[in-house]
Amino acid sequence: MDNEEKSLNTIIRNVTDSDAFDIACKILQDGGLVAFPTETVYGLGGDGLRAESSEKIYAAKGRPSDNPLIIHIADISDVERLAREIPDKARTLMEAFWPGPLTVILKKKPEVPDTTTGGLDTVAIRMPSHPDAARLIRESGVLIAAPSANTSGRPSPTLAEHVIEDMNGRIDMILDGGPVGIGIESTIVDMTGDKPVILRPGYITKHMLEGVLGEVSIDKAIIEPDPNLRPKAPGMKYTHYAPSGKLTIIESADESDNSDNSDSSHGSVSQAVIDRINQETEKAEAEGLVTAVLTTSDMADKYTCKNIITLGESGSGTTVAARLYAALRECDKIGAEVIFSESFDRDELGFSIMNRLLKAAGHRVITV
Ligand code: TXA
Ligand code: MG
After folding, report:
1. Residues at Cβ < 5 Å from ligand 2 ion
2. 190, exposed or middle or buried, with CB in 10 Å at 0-12, 13-18, 19+?
3. How many Å lie between the centroid of ligand 2 and the Cα of residue 240?
4. Are 13 and 27 in contact (CB under 8 A)?
5. Of residues 153 and 336, which shows the higher confidence score?
């Protein structure tokens, strides 16, 4: 990033500091940018109804401006300020999962600037459950457009330290609310058509959505990479979350189509996977490369690599999701040049975890 853009004196406050919210609210009301915690990942917030604030967001992230932002609200009634139609099923969805890690796509009102929606006729809306996020929206009176608070392409921030790494000097303020709970971004559901479509998988799974909506489909373009399919959430087409080193997922042959397990857990990691990861890292180390292995804490002692980076516990998708992005950033911290990861069952939350991990790996998978 060039130095010219890195010239702001970023204010950093803990959410418990007595002046934190007063300063943050004033900045948002003046059209500036404040990073803040949500239950999914840290967001980079600006006034969603002001084109110039959205432009600042794109600039701070180095994000292409055709990649629209999510507007965060504090009350369901705020949807009426943004959407020109609210289908019954969309209402059902909001009532079931808000506040929480769900983003709904609706047809936008003209008051929502095209800059915020990347030129689309639709708008993404989410009501976060994180108390500090809700407080910031309420006290500022601003409907906050917020992408994840990372530099475009890097893993989303799950700690204020990650936001500081990427955004110090580029935005007005960072509100430190400690580690986030969930660790991967909200589920995005398009409610503008006849049938609900998942555009980005997240903590709220297809199964949970179907419990209240009936049949829900998944945007085909996000299931398998296919150059002929264009994801309906523009952001899903970009490379994402990638550490600087080359990440490869090692998976056992029967793991990739194992989707009938009830918990989003580790596929029983086979000895073949462990052996292959050890072979690959030993080979890379012999070539003098800095290597790392991504695994769960209970499997860590199976590997010979000296840099083991753990992702929660096997059998617990929520602990894996919570650690995923921090682990990818740790790969960069230690300067890992080659990284090997185990694979996870693609059921329930595991589907969302694998969506992120496959992107981080540029879909490099070795099946053994
Ligand atoms: O959990 C989250 O959703 C976090 C926190 C901060 O709320 N936010 C987040 O925003 O992940 P971002 O900008 O990193 O991702 C937003 C995604 C992008 O893939 C974007 O293309 C898609 O939402 N999106 C936004 N508006 C859309 C629209 N009108 N139609 C389709 N996709 C849209
Ligand atoms: Mg993002």
Report:
1. 148
2. buried
3. 8
4. no
5. 336
